[in-house]
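Open question from group meeting: does this chain pack into something compact, or does most of it stay loose? Before anyone orders reagents, we agreed to write out a predicted structure and look at it together. Recording both the input and the output here so the notebook holds the full record.
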Amino acid sequence: MMTLAIDFSSVRRSVAVVDGAASPFPAVLAKSGETGGEGTQAFAMMESTLREAGVRREDVELLALGLGPGSYAGVRVALSIANGWQLARSVVKTSGVSSVACLAWTAHVAGHRGEIGLIIDAQRGEFYLGRYRLEAAGCSELAPLAIVSRDRILELLAQGGVILGPQAKSSFPQAQDLFPDAGVLGKLALRDGIPTGADQLEPIYLRPVAFAKAPPPRTDL
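Structure tokens returned:
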């Protein structure tokens, strides 16, 4: 199944084309990314990646999406792209993948082994924490994803724990930066995902997103 994988859950956004029919395992045909800024050249990035892979838009059968947690706006952009794609081509399916699970397998591919903690900034001085054990055979989750305090991360680091995550080093100098890889995301979606409609997918968050209500307009001078 020809897959276009999209992860916009962090400041380092990435796109990949993964051929699920490749033998013996799915193959990443092309991958691209961008870093920084509030905006994203999403469509240009997708077009260039498809072109590099030699794959036409109409050849894409599955859209694999990183669902966070992470950048709420970024995940929403990815979901909007998937919704629009399915409106234009109803035969295309979507599959959502936890960006934390993607991080775990990205760390595995990079050669990390043993117990690790994966963190993502949850704002308000808190962090999403996912704990995994990485072995040669694969990854296993040690505890469900949770929101923890900064002190909890410092405690794990003081105990010699390995902490990785998007921009983790800017919050904890002893931690290591690691970003979701769209190529890994596509492979996970092909292996574990359940294809569905884009309108059935939601960002992964452990608490409601809070928006500040604007004050009423002033009419006096």
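Observations to bring back to the group:
The radius of gyration is 18 Å.
Residues 209-221 have pLDDT under 50 and may be disordered.
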